[in-house]
Amino acid sequence: MTAEVMAASDANYDPALSKLITTLKEAETLSNDQEIDFLKALLESKELNALVNVHTKVAKVGRDDRLAPMLSNSAVILYEALEQLSQRCHLNEDCREVFHLLQKPHLQSLLHAHDAIAQKDFYPHLPELPVEMDEDEETIKIVQLVKSNEPLGATIKTEEETGKIIIARIMHGGAADRSGLIHVGDEVIEVNGINVEGKTPGDVLSILQNSEGTITFKLVPSDGKGAQRESKVRVRAHFDYSPDVDPYIPCKEAGLAFQRGDILHIVSQDDAYWWQARRESERTARAGLIPSRALQERRLLHERTQREVNDSESKKGSCASICTTPPASPLMRSSSSSSSCRQPKTKKIMYDLTENDDFDREMIATYEEVAKLYPRPGVFRPVVLIGAPGVGRNELRRRLIARDSEKYRSPVPYTTRPMRTGEVAGREYIFVTREKMEADIEAGKFVEHGEYKGHLYGTSGESVKSIINAGCVCLLSPHYQAIKALRTVQLKPFIVHIKPPEFEILKKTRTEARAKSTFDETNTRGFTDDEFNDMIKSAERIDFLYGHFFDEEILNGDLVTAFEKLVNTVQRIENEPLWAPASWVQ
Ligand SMILES: Nc1ncnc2c1ncn2[C@@H]1O[C@H](COP(=O)(O)OP(=O)(O)OP(=O)(O)O)[C@@H](O)[C@H]1O
């Protein structure tokens, strides 16, 4: 043994490292180049030796069966348990306590850390060693897939600089993805023995369409690994989408149709314009292409600009009959119908902002990131009933309170108007001076407020909070313009849109029930046909302006049915995890 190696063992070198140093010494006698010197210095460094020792100890602990984890998915089990418990919380105290404990962020983080260790998530993922090969020779892979009714789940494109046909996307969960053999960036050289050089993606598609049985691809693998990780993002769609009528989608068959309100699992946002998603309710399905937020926002902006141009053109009277612009979407029509659904003069208007409510639609509604919000035992989310004036929000609210007045309560509103005969302070209203109310509004003490006939009206945040803190369900039926002020992380409201049925049913149900028009200040006559029509138009406008904020819609035709649906809804809010803005769930 050489003097240096003796020194190495003196320094408590790891045996394997000592052996390497010895071998290196022997090699040094054969050649004496700089690289060997460098390697020697590295192997003899204290830092490397310390690292190797740590590694050996960790590896030894890892081999000890006594320390093997029982399971590596405890966090998943926790969420499953929460889901089960949430339906039983109302049954007994123990359930509620466990449910409460399992929701603690510390416990959840602990289980996540446990799972990461159990799954050995700490091991570095080293790139695969390159296989020795002739540098000039390209690796080619031959992939065979059996053609079925299911689409391949991949899109191709022509690479601009080279003209090569390249795999542009692999749809998550699709046939190509499941095969694990085709990756984004792979170059397609042949399909079923046909050279695709110089061909367009359309030509390749027709080769595929005309093939039967097995399809054989000859591919040059891309440099990257192409491994796709699924993102966990869930969004609520705020618009309807159909790939069949989208002229820009790269491949209609690869598109995913959805409707406003659908919860979508966004599995990939790798492409700036086309995300991959599947409907939350179809977890195993192949992912489909949907427009990204950026693309959809651009389109809406474009449509809006187009509409403005058309509006100004038609005002000039120049192209009304020759304009070839496609008919306005429902989105556009509602937006321009503000004058047709303005409230009648006799109706009380607490929120004198009718000229401004287009601002509410300024926010471009595309997708909203959501997450499951679990009910907290004893702390109920406020339920906000929104609807066109006269549609029956207060009737439904009153019925719910009458059903269980211990549980459902509404805050007493504040007003600056003088008290009328028969009224009791604190029962109908809390009467305050204008100065006091303005100061409180300024100080942010009202969750919603408005002005009617020179008097202020509003609901204080404190009164809502005190109902929630008393363990009751707070019911609110404010003017629809209060939605934005109420929809905060502090209140986490559940918003229900009470909608009128079609004209005939609306008229029939109200007439049979001798309903009193809320447009009549004396509250003595029934609704007129004009008022029914206004109610329907107003509901359309509310839907256009605020539809993306609604958690639920209830059609108030038959009152018994509508009330039953409301009862079911409030029970779900109390017991089930429900989708809510992701920023509310931390
Ligand atoms: N489904 C229904 N069938 C029959 N009558 C109904 C129905 N829903 C509500 N009504 C009646 O319609 C009238 C107006 O209802 P309500 O007072 O609840 O309206 P609202 O939405 O609170 O209106 P506003 O905001 O103008 O006060 C009441 O007489 C109510 O009993």
UniProtKB/TrEMBL annotation:
Domain spans labelled L27: 13-66, 67-125
Domain Guanylate kinase-like span(s) in chain numbering: 380-571
Record-linked PROSITE patterns: GUANYLATE_KINASE_1, GUANYLATE_KINASE_2, L27, PDZ, SH3
Residue ranges occupied by any PDZ domain in the UniProt entry: 142-223
Keyword Zinc: no
GO cellular component: anchoring junction; membrane
Amino acid composition bias (Basic and acidic residues), ranges on this chain: 303-316
Domain SH3 positions: 230-300
Keywords: Cell junction, Membrane, Repeat, SH3 domain
Entries under SMART domains matching the protein: GuKc (SM00072), L27 (SM00569), PDZ (SM00228), SH3 (SM00326)
InterPro entries (alphabetical): GK/Ca_channel_bsu, Guanylate_kin-like_dom, Guanylate_kinase_CS, L27_C, L27_dom, L27_dom_sf, MAGUK, P-loop_NTPase
Localization in the cell: Cell junction; Membrane
Key word Membrane present: yes
Region: Disordered, residue numbers: 303-345
Similarity field: Belongs to the MAGUK family.
Protein's name according to its UniProt entry: MAGUK p55 subfamily member 7
Source organism (scientific name): Glossina pallidipes (Tsetse fly)
